[in-house]
TrEMBL record:
<feature type="compositionally biased region" description="Basic and acidic residues">
    <location>
        <begin position="1370"/>
        <end position="1380"/>
    </location>
</feature>
<dbReference type="InterPro" id="IPR006212">
    <property type="entry name" value="Furin_repeat"/>
</dbReference>
<keyword id="KW-0812">Transmembrane</keyword>
<keyword id="KW-1015">Disulfide bond</keyword>
<protein>
    <recommendedName>
        <fullName>WW domain-containing protein</fullName>
    </recommendedName>
</protein>
<feature type="disulfide bond">
    <location>
        <begin position="596"/>
        <end position="614"/>
    </location>
</feature>
<feature type="transmembrane region" description="Helical">
    <location>
        <begin position="1112"/>
        <end position="1129"/>
    </location>
</feature>
<dbReference type="InterPro" id="IPR036020">
    <property type="entry name" value="WW_dom_sf"/>
</dbReference>
<feature type="compositionally biased region" description="Basic and acidic residues">
    <location>
        <begin position="1307"/>
        <end position="1317"/>
    </location>
</feature>
<feature type="transmembrane region" description="Helical">
    <location>
        <begin position="1064"/>
        <end position="1092"/>
    </location>
</feature>
<feature type="transmembrane region" description="Helical">
    <location>
        <begin position="927"/>
        <end position="950"/>
    </location>
</feature>
<feature type="domain" description="TNFR-Cys">
    <location>
        <begin position="560"/>
        <end position="614"/>
    </location>
</feature>
<dbReference type="Pfam" id="PF00397">
    <property type="entry name" value="WW"/>
</dbReference>
<feature type="domain" description="WW">
    <location>
        <begin position="1347"/>
        <end position="1380"/>
    </location>
</feature>
<feature type="repeat" description="TNFR-Cys">
    <location>
        <begin position="560"/>
        <end position="614"/>
    </location>
</feature>
<dbReference type="InterPro" id="IPR001202">
    <property type="entry name" value="WW_dom"/>
</dbReference>
<dbReference type="InterPro" id="IPR009030">
    <property type="entry name" value="Growth_fac_rcpt_cys_sf"/>
</dbReference>
């Protein structure tokens, strides 16, 4: 609206008026106003003050705006111009300051930026220039590292100094570093090169020096190391060479010397060792000494450094192989004259040193083989024995050891024994024993107790019970009872039913009589509480009288309350009703007399037998009811009552009056009014008007006008106003711009729009400024935010600076009207750091022309690469052509390249060269076809080679020889239980199998045989290796293959095949799966697990350290593959910390195990070593002629030298069967004897663990069963098995074809050993006659069906049971009862 004052118009501006004021207000200091002229030429004042545009501020008179000078700036609403900060500049009238571009700088309040001097650089918005540090040069405002081998000073733009010889320079360094010892460098070198093997160098050297003879170096060392004793080296050697056996060398030697006669040396010896007494040696050749000394044969002796042996031994002494003197027989053994060994005493006997015979142990004592004394059988521990026994008899469960009779006796009833004792324990407490020979006492069952002698149990009597295992029965507590049950006993007491009671030890319960009850079964309680009674027998709880009732006097029932009284229940007596109340008989409460309701009056009051009588009030009257006896007339001013039963008189409302009889109301007529509560209507004063029923006469109010036709005041239209009521609609005034009116009841003034809003064209509402814009008070439009600012949401009053620490320092917007904080972006050459809200300068490899970059969206220049979206480390590619750059980290490489630095070829691309020369070419053809062709060719070559070798292996076809060997193997498994027979069969098999197997004999000349002979695994291996070397010298065609097996033990000569297969599967085998798939990794893990099992089981290498290292290597491969699988399935963690932990664990796995091996190597070993355990059973499945020695060694390690003697004396039937009962399938006599000797308290006969393997010993069992002997006893089950083994050893068995074959094989084996004095028949004659076999329990039961025996019967005693049985030698029958 137009603003005018009553007297004049403001002269200069700087003031404004809203129009309804009588004065002009002064503008705020950050706004201004000016005078304007309307279309009629009239000067008018301002209705509001406005802001200056950005880049200008109000002048001092607030009548206009002045532009800011260069170097300063201002925003909308500022009162002063602010100087630009350091690193920024501005032109005249600038609203924001601009950052100095990279390579320039400025100070505070600068109108422009200055260029940096050469050698200096500046980032975007720099206040000063920074010099490039020493070792760098400035190029295009970036400090680049000086190339390796050069350096520079600080503030340089060029690198012009080179490193001298013996030094090298790293990229970006200021000085040159000297080369360490073992390395050298030429002039201007960027790195030091390591000296090659056989050379060395001092620090800061330009070249390397050769090592002299006797010294070596591996390369990269400061000096050469002298060779240790037993090694030598020529000039410029990288490693020392070992002196072979029979030669030696001193430390630092250039060659090896030969050992003289009478001395020897092993491999890598520093001197020769003199042969000790009992040994001798000679030169192998003029330049080859002896590798070892040979033992003198049995019965011969020698002195130190001897070449020959002589001498012989007296009775009681013996001379072993290699012994320098004749040794006396130890206690527990004996010998005759000229013996080469001493015989051990048998079990049950003993001897002293140099004894000629052995003495029987007395009763109560025992001894094992080779015993020097007899040990006592401790009866207190449950052991007894007879004279000459080799073991103690253990008295087991239910028995005791009787030291007087040296026998085991059963425990009587009431007593028990767990075995291993000389006494039986009595059963105590709630325990009993009703059996003879019981091992443990029984617990008395529930409901019973033991008898006084604890030999039986008896049921608990009535009123008592037992929970089991108790020594006596317990009385039932009060409230419970029990009855006698001779069969089941009393296991507990039954609780009395509710309403019944019992005392302690009762056999029944008694019910409670009225008026009493019981709920605990202990006592009957009287019902004497408030309102309680009981009307039945056996009540569990007392009853309570209901409402309107009370208990009878005897408390055995209830009765009603009389009239005039009441009861709510649970009371002993009924209560009287109060005044003004009444009740009937059996009432639960009393009723109060009623009063009259509102609108009625009381005619008569109530009596004890009648109700109150009330009457109705008529129109014109009213009553509040209650005890009022009449109605009140409505006669007061303005009162009336227009209906019956009125509680109060109504008052006439405004615009109305009561009728004359006050029974209704009437409306005031037109131009009259009533304010209410009056009997009359008042006429309107002059100038007023009213409608019928009006409460007042009207004059139009502010914001309205009078409508004469309607005789009413109506509101001015929206967008108009009137300060006072108007008499016509045309007098309502329009709102000024920026002001609105929207009151539907009419506006008396217009309201200005608040800051952040603007008015619409109709001036009816204020609209919020949209995002990206702002406004002041009374605005008609909104101003867009300037560049570098933003406003989020609507109705904003100010724009927020982007260049702020709270937003993004150093950022700006691309255009005006920015609506979000995300519109604030870093300018070109900068990027947003994830660690802080600030724009940082881009670094080498990142585009400086892209704006709005963050760490994930960094635009990488061509020729550079980074690993992930979170990495800020940008690396130059080895070849810039391989990296195309961009912001997508998954697509930084050009086609055909991938991986770190794009230095790996993609699948289906072939690589040529490496590093900077790498070129990836797309492949053609089929990879599968290529692999198939190579595999087929390899298979054909291998097959042809095998066929060629088989054809040249001998004149006789391999199939025919294999058949003969197969027959021998079957004969070995079917007929023979003797180790020597099996050895002969194996030898026959090897001999017939052809030249190929003979070659295999050269590779393994009998390591197990030597181990058995020397009784030392390591010495056996060494001797086998020496033997193999001798065979290699005799067979050069074998020696040419030594590189395949020389690292392995002779018995594992074939292991290179296993190693080759493993490597092929881990390399060529994986190509059949897609690269990088989980299938490849899983196959590798399976191969590693199988390899670990093979290496740990066979331990194939000669060196124990190599065995350990090989197994550790498999573990390392397994963990590497397992880690690869974890990475493949993304299990190595998502955070950087998780990845660091994962890498640390991989490093520990890779280097931890080798470090442990090195530490173990440096720590001195303990003396001795654990030998391998070889199976001692008849399961001789080892391939080769020496499989028998593995079994023999296993028997020796497990059971002692007596079993070894059994192997060397195969026709000793007793030992033969005893060995069969001592194998893996059963533990018989030998085990029982030795186990009892080592631990007398052993309570379980190991023989009971026997297991029959009829598949391997079928023929042996059939032959023994044909003689009437139990199969299980032969294998060795318990003491009876021991007895039957002894007896079975002497049983003459029928001669069969298989027996003849066995005898021939044994004879052939003895003949092969050169024993011409061997006599088969003489050996057989030594077998003692067989004692009769007692009948089995089953045979004893069926004895009645046996026909009458012949009269030739002999009486015998069973050693175990002590019973007598009878044997017929003619019919080979045995009976328990004496025949008639």
């Amino acid at each position: 609206m137009t603003v005018r004052l009553a007297s004049s118009v403001t002269e200069k501006g700087s003031k404004f008026s809203l129009g309804s004021k009588t004065f002009c207000a002064t503008c705020d200091s950050n706004k201004y106003s000016t005078l304007t002229t309307d279309d009629k030429g009239v000067t008018v004042g301002a209705s509001s003050c406005v802001y200056c545009d950005s880049g200008s501020i109000p002048n001092s008179e607030l009548t206009g705006c002045d532009s800011c000078l260069a170097g300063t700036y201002s925003s909308i609403g500022d009162t002063t111009c602010s100087p630009c900060g350091a690193g920024r500049y501005s032109q005249d009238g600038a609203g924001v300051c601009t950052y100095c571009s990279p390579g320039t700088y400025s100070s505070e309040g600068s109108p422009s930026c200055q260029d940096c001097d050469p050698g200096y650089f500046a980032p975007n918005g720099a206040s000063t220039c920074t010099d490039c540090v020493a070792g760098k040069k400035e190029v295009n405002n970036f400090c680049e590292n000086c190339p390796a081998g050069t350096f520079s000073e600080a503030g340089s733009s060029e690198c012009n100094s080179s490193c001298p010889e013996g030094t090298y320079g790293e990229t970006g360094k200021t000085t040159c570093n000297p080369c360490p010892a073992g390395k050298f460098a030429p002039l201007g070198a960027s790195f030091c090169e390591s000296c090659t093997a056989g050379t060395f160098s001092a620090p800061s050297s330009g070249a390397c020096t050769d090592c002299s003879a006797g010294k070596v170096s591996l390369g990269g060392t400061a000096s050469c190391d002298s060779c240790n004793e037993g090694y030598y080296a020529p000039q410029k050697s990288s490693s020392c060479r070992v002196c072979t056996a029979g030669r030696y060398s001193e430390a630092g030697a250039g060659s090896c010397s030969t050992c003289t006669a009478g001395k020897f040396s092993s491999t890598a010896a520093g001197s020769c060792t003199t042969c000790s007494a009992g040994k001798f040696s000679a030169l192998v050749s003029d330049d080859q000494g002896a590798a070892s000394c040979s033992d003198c044969p049995a019965g011969k002796v020698s002195e130190d450094n001897s070449a020959e042996c002589s001498g012989s031994c007296e009775p009681g002494t013996y001379g072993a192989v290699g012994s320098p003197v004749c040794l006396p027989c130890l206690a527990g053994s004996y010998s005759g004259s000229g013996a080469d060994s001493c015989e051990n005493c048998e079990e049950g006997k003993f001897s002293e040193e140099r004894a000629a015979s052995c003495t029987n142990c007395t009763a109560g004592k025992y001894s094992g083989k080779a015993a020097s004394t007899c040990d006592d059988c401790v009866a207190a521990d449950g052991y007894v024995s007879l004279e000459g026994e080799g073991q103690c008899t253990f008295c087991g469960v239910g028995k005791r050891a009787d030291a007087t009779t040296n026998a085991c006796k059963d425990c009587l009833k009431g007593k028990v024994s767990e075995g291993g004792s000389s006494t039986c324990m009595s059963c105590l407490g709630g325990k009993y024993s009703d059996l003879i020979g019981a091992s443990s006492c029984k617990s008395a069952p529930a409901g019973f107790k033991p008898t006084t002698d604890h030999t039986d149990v008896m049921a608990c009597p009535s009123g008592k019970y037992s929970i089991g295992g108790a020594s006596s029965c317990v009385a039932c507590p009060a409230g419970k009872f029990s009855t006698y049950d001779s069969v089941n006993g009393a296991v507990g007491c039954t609780a009395c039913n509710l309403g019944s009671i019992s005392i302690e030890g009762s056999s029944s319960c008694t019910p409670c009589s009225p008026p009493s009850c019981s709920y605990d079964g202990l006592t009957c309680k009287q019902c004497n509480g408030n309102g309680q009674y009981s009307d039945e027998d056996g009540a569990a709880f007392c009853k309570t009288a209901k409402a309107g009732h009370k208990p009878r006097g005897d408390r055995k029932g209830e009765e009603q309350c009389p009239a005039g009284t009441y009861s709510t229940g649970g009371a002993n007596e009924c209560s009287e009703c109060g005044e003004g109340e009444s009740s009937a008989a059996g009432a639960a409460g009393c009723s109060t007399c009623a009063t009259c309701a509102t609108g009625r009056y009381m005619i008569s009051a109530c009596t004890p037998t009648t109700e109150t009588l009330c009457g109705d009030c008529l129109a014109g009257t009213a009553s509040m009811g209650g005890k009022f006896t009449s109605c009140t007339a409505c006669t007061e001013d303005g009162e009336y009552s227009d209906k019956n039963l009125a509680s109060v008189c109504s008052t006439a409302s405004a615009g109305h009056k009561p009728s004359a009889d006050h029974t209704s109301i009437e409306t005031c007529p037109e131009n009259t009014f009533s304010i209410g509560a009056s009997n009359n209507c008042t006429s309107c004063p002059d100038g007023g008007h009213s409608l019928p029923g009006s409460s007042a006469c009207e004059k139009c109010s502010t914001g309205t006008y009078y409508n004469k036709s309607a005789n009413t005041c109506e509101s001015c239209p929206l967008g108009k106003f009137t300060a006072t009521g108007e008499n016509d609609i045309n007098n309502c005034k329009d709102c000024d711009a920026g002001f609105i009116s929207n009151d539907p009841d009419g506006a008396g003034f217009c309201s200005p729009c608040e800051a952040g809003y603007y008015s619409n064209l109709a001036q009816t509402k204020c609209l919020p400024c949209p995002p990206g814009s702002i406004s002041g008070i009374a605005a008609t439009t909104c101003d867009l935010c300037e560049i570098g600012k933003f406003a989020t949401g609507s109705n904003n009053t100010v724009c927020t600076y982007c260049d702020d620490d709270k937003v993004l320092k150093g950022s700006t917007t691309k255009s005006t009207g920015s609506t979000s904080i995300f519109d604030c972006q870093c300018e070109a050459g900068d990027f947003k750091s994830d660690e802080s809200s600030i724009c940082e300068n881009v670094f080498a490899g990142v585009s400086s022309t892209s704006d709005g970059m963050t760490v994930p969206t960094l635009s990488i220049e061509p020729g550079f690469w980074r690993s992930s979206e979170t990495s800020k480390k940008v690396l130059p590619c080895l070849d810039k052509r391989h990296c195309k750059g961009g912001s997508n980290v998954t697509d930084l490489c050009t086609e055909g390249y991938t991986g770190p630095l794009c230095a790996v070829c993609q699948p289906n691309y072939a690589s040529t060269g490496s590093g900077q020369t790498l070129t990836c070419t797309k492949c053609g053809g089929s990879a599968f076809a290529t692999i198939a062709a190579i595999s087929t060719t390899f298979f054909v070559i291998i097959t042809a080679s095998i066929c060629y070798c088989l054809r040249r292996s001998g004149e006789t076809p391999i199939e025919k020889k294999g058949l003969t060997a197969h027959d021998d193997l079957n004969r070995l498994r079917t007929f023979s239980t003797d180790a020597k027979k099996k050895a002969k069969a194996m030898a026959t098999f090897v001999d017939e199998a052809g030249p190929i197997l003979k070659i295999l004999q050269y590779l393994d000349p009998g390591q197990r045989n030597f181990t058995f002979e020397l009784r030392n695994e390591e010495e056996g291996m060494k001797k086998a290796i020496e033997k193999r070397k001798e065979l290699e010298e005799l067979h050069p065609h074998v020696k040419r293959l030594s590189f395949l097996y020389s690292s392995y033990e002779p018995q594992c000569y074939w292991f290179e095949v296993v190693e080759t297969v493993r490597k092929l599967v881990l390399t060529a085998g994986l190509i059949f799966f897609q690269p990088g798939t989980a299938a490849q990794i899983v196959l590798s893990i399976l191969v590693c697990l199988l390899s670990m099992r093979v290496y740990s089981g066979w331990k194939p290498f000669v060196s124990e350290e190599h065995d350990k290292l090989a197994e550790v290597a498999q573990w390392q491969l397994f963990f590497v593959m397992f880690a690869a699988l974890l990475i493949r399935v993304n299990m190595d963690g998502e955070s950087l910390q998780d990845k660091v932990y994962f890498d640390i664990m991989l490093v520990i796995i890779q280097f931890g195990a080798p470090a442990l091996l090195v530490a173990q190597r440096l720590i001195p070993k303990k003396k001795g070593r654990i030998g391998r355990f070889f199976s001692a059973a008849a399961d001789l499945t080892g391939f080769g002629a020496f499989g028998v020695f593995e079994a023999a060694e296993g028997l020796k390690n497990e059971f002692g030298d007596d079993v070894v003697e059994m192997v060397n004396n195969p026709l000793d039937k007793n030992r033969q069967l005893r060995a069969a009962s001592s194998g893996r399938f059963g533990l018989g006599e030998e085990v029982v004897a030795k186990k009892l000797k080592k631990k007398k308290k052993k309570k379980k006969d190991d023989g009971e663990r026997g297991e029959v393997d009829t598949a391997k010993d079928k023929k042996l069992f059939q032959r023994l069963e044909s003689g009437g002997y139990n199969k299980k006893a032969v294998i060795g089950v318990g003491k009876k098995g021991l007895l039957e083994v002894k007896k079975a050893a002497a049983v003459p068995t029928p001669q069969t074809k298989e027996d003849e074959v066995e005898k021939k094989m044994i004879y052939a084996y003895k003949d092969a050993e050169g024993r011409e004095d061997y006599d088969m028949e003489e050996e057989e004659d030594e077998v003692p006659p067989a004692p009769p076999q007692p009948p089995t329990l089953e045979e004893h039961k069926d004895e009645e069906s046996i026909p009458p025996p012949p009269p030739t019967w002999e009486e015998h005693k069973d050693e175990e049971s002590g019973q007598f049985y009878y044997h017929n030698a003619k019919t080979n029958e045995t009976r328990w009862e004496k025949p008639n």
